[in-house]
Write a structure and sequence with these properties.
507 residues; alpha/beta; Rossmann fold; 3 domains; 4-stranded parallel β-sheet; 4-stranded antiparallel β-sheet; 16 helices
């Protein structure tokens, strides 16, 4: 069996992954607060842990892995949106409007993440479905002396847990100095956090031993993981920004409620995302959602490929150049395969992913295989399966096959005779070149390749001269050709496609 190694945030080192039960591997990832569309940064953990989910299924079996990702549907921003709709005249109670908004946003989220190739988790719990479990856990923490009531609130006592700060690697004093903490007179310690808080009459609330109220954020995930997985499970994941305070607080309250040796064995966190070298923010004008990119014509596979090209524990910079380069690589891969059934992922790809989810290494390896696939040295079926393990299904992509000769519109059917017995030639589209122009150049280069293969050199030279006239610089290889525009490139200078030699020359 493949040995998987994962970097554990808790121990600060890469460890061999040993599941509690290999027939029931359990992974929980913090999901979105569903008040609006998911922005690009929200999508990175989805892709990261989707690849891990696929790897775990590959190694342990599809029926032996359970992946849970929650929806936080109790939140002040959700309440504010519903209130504004009600004030604008929307019909229905506040609870109805909140339900309507969360249903709408969850549907958006699943559609957008599905466009990136993400599998839906086995479990997708909503916080509102586990309110009683949150109340039960809070009661248990009070009974054990780890929580206390104060002015309608219930707060966790961080001083009661000696290991508080072990996940984030911070002391309590450092946390106070570096964090924005809510100053409240009823707190025993500035870092104590809310497990339950009161709700006013105009806000959602549930009855509890401490009055009508709603849960704090951190208790939600602890209650849901316990309900779904029990007191101990294998992997807890999320973005690096959740390490503190969210995951630190989850760990503290869960361990105090269930026992020191409980909760997650492995903690994984992906680094943050930038856009063109800067932090994504509305003030900088570089903030956009996944849906924004999709509607601009950026395929979901391209977004995913850009994510995969950087190791998950390194900051990722989204740039237009990277997106264009990703599109070109995927176009080339797309043209390698046809309708053949998928094979088995190549060992080198599995090994790269098993080494702390090294997607960048797997992508680079597959890039190098392209020519071997063309030459028949690597199975197309296995290449297809290897790319699929990364979450990209080449056969399901709805892209134009820009460089496949049978899609070319030749002036006369007799041009096809030139390709009899000649393998397809793949032509890369240079960065910044329009697809229509690239297709036309590809036709000329494919014809030149076929003419050279048939030893009709005069025709091959005529095609080359026409390309040079348009300002095309050709780089020809054994399995493909590359071209780039010179300074004077102008597609308008490309002459009409030269006439074919007579039929005798094609025989």
């Amino acid at each position: 069996m493949t040995t998987i190694k994962l970097h554990n945030t808790l121990t600060r080192k890469k460890e061999i992954f040993a599941p509690i039960d290999p027939t029931n591997v359990r992974m929980y990832v913090c999901g979105p607060t569903v008040y609006d569309r998911a922005h690009l940064g929200n999508a990175r953990p989805v892709v990261v842990f989707d690849v891990l989910y696929r790897l775990l299924r590959h190694v342990y079996g599809e029926d032996h892995v359970t992946y849970a990702r929650n929806f936080t549907d109790v939140d002040d921003k959700i309440n504010a949106t519903a209130l504004s709709r009600k004030e604008a005249g929307a019909s229905g109670s506040l609870e109805d409007l909140i339900q309507e908004r969360t249903d709408e946003t969850i549907r958006w989220y699943l559609d957008d993440m599905g466009a990136l190739g993400a599998l839906e988790p086995n479990e997708a719990p909503r916080a509102t479905q586990f309110i009683q479990q949150m109340i039960d856990m809070t009661e248990a923490l009070i009974a054990s002396g780890h929580a206390y009531q104060a002015e309608g609130h219930v707060l966790f006592d961080v001083k009661s847990y000696a290991d508080y700060g072990s996940l984030s690697g911070r002391s309590v004093d450092d946390m106070i100095a570096g964090a924005r903490v809510e100053v409240a007179p009823y707190k025993r310690h500035p870092m104590d956090f809310v497990l339950w808080k009161p709700s006013s009459d105009d806000l959602p609330g549930w009855d509890s031993p401490w009055g009508r109220g709603r849960p704090g954020w951190h208790i939600e995930c602890s209650a849901m993981t316990k309900a779904l997985f029990g007191e101990k499970f294998d992997i807890h994941g999320g973005g690096l920004d959740l390490t503190f305070p969210h995951h630190e607080n989850e760990k503290a309250q869960s361990c105090c409620e269930a026992g020191e040796d409980s909760f997650a064995n492995y903690w994984m966190h992906n680094e943050m995302l930038q856009v063109e070298g800067k932090k994504m923010s509305k003030s900088l004008g570089n903030f956009f959602t996944v849906r924004d990119l999709l509607e601009q014509g950026v395929p979901g596979e391209v977004i995913r490929f850009v994510f995969l090209s950087t190791h998950y524990r390194k900051p990722m910079d989204w740039t237009a150049k990277k997106a264009e380069e990703a599109r070109q690589v995927l176009e080339a891969w797309y043209n390698l395969v046809g309708d053949e059934p998928s094979g088995k992922p190549l060992a080198e790809v599995v090994e790269a992913l098993a080494d702390d989810l090294n997607t960048a290494g797997a992508v680079n390896f597959l890039k190098q295989l392209r020519y071997k696939v063309v030459d028949g040295l690597v199975s197309k079926a296995d290449f297809l399966a290897s790319v699929a393990l990364l979450g990209i299904d080449l056969q399901m992509m709805k892209w134009p096959r820009s460089f496949v000769r049978e899609r070319a519109e030749f002036p006369h059917a007799s041009y096809e005779a030139l390709f009899d017995g000649v393998d397809i030639f793949f032509v890369e589209r240079p960065v910044g070149i329009d697809e229509t122009i690239a297709r036309e150049i590809a036709i000329w280069l494919n014809l030149r390749h076929a003419a050279r293969a048939k030893k009709i050199f005069s025709y091959a030279d005529e095609l080359k001269n026409g390309l040079i006239q348009a300002g095309v610089l050709i780089q020809e290889g054994k399995s493909e050709t590359k071209w780039e525009p010179t300074e004077g490139f102008d597609i308008a200078n490309l002459p009409e496609l030269p006439s074919l030699p007579d039929d005798e020359a094609l025989k």
